[in-house]
Write a structure and sequence with these properties.
- The protein contains 4 helices and 9 strands, in the order βααβββαβαββββ.
- It is an alpha+beta fold and 157 residues long.
- The strands form 2 sheets. It has a 7-stranded mixed β-sheet, with helices on both faces. A two-stranded antiparallel ribbon has the order 7-8.
- The longest helix has 12 residues.
- It is globular and about 35 Å long.
Length: 157
């Protein structure tokens, strides 16, 4: 199976199912989706994954959402999607990529650091914000409270 990565032309319920895997708040997703560019990974007409990138400045962009369909997880598709963004961002003038993830997201933290992202900040109680997250989030049997900000600076690579 050789997947294709292409821009998302219109969001379907299947896209939203994926978005909610990485961000359980529709309110949070709505706050960034319209100002972002999304790419989908498709193989045999099946949606495998999705990545959403939002420009913060002319030179910095944030990966807002990265999700893989559960059936296709643990098969390196997230690495390929993230690699696509890393490869193409500098070609568009982006000098720094940022990604924010949960402090209990051990698999994601490993992947991001493996691909050159460095921890730069902790956002204390980020996921306790009741404006976005009405219920507590548990991941890896831990209550998720804090977010970790990671960045990859292409100028220092």
């Amino acid at each position: 199976m050789q997947p294709t990565i292409r821009p998302v032309s219109a969001f379907t319920p299947q896209h939203y199912d994926l978005l909610l895997l990485a961000d359980p708040s529709l309110k949070s997703i709505a706050s960034y989706l319209s100002r972002s560019t999304a790419f989908e990974m498709v193989a045999d007409q099946r949606l495998i994954g999705l990545v959403v990138v939002r420009p913060l400045t002319n030179q910095t962009a944030e990966i807002m959402n990265l999700a893989i369909t559960p059936k296709f997880q643990q098969q390196h598709f997230a690495s390929r999607l993230l690699g696509f963004v890393i490869e193409h961002a500098p070609k568009t003038g982006i000098q720094k990529l940022r990604i924010v993830t949960g402090s209990t997201s051990f698999t994601q933290l490993y992947l991001y650091q493996k691909l050159g992202f460095r921890c730069v900040k902790v956002l204390t109680d980020h996921f306790v914000n009741s404006a976005y997250y009405s219920e507590p989030i548990y991941e890896n049997n831990l209550r998720l409270r804090d977010a970790i900000v990671l960045e990859r600076d292409f100028l220092s690579d």
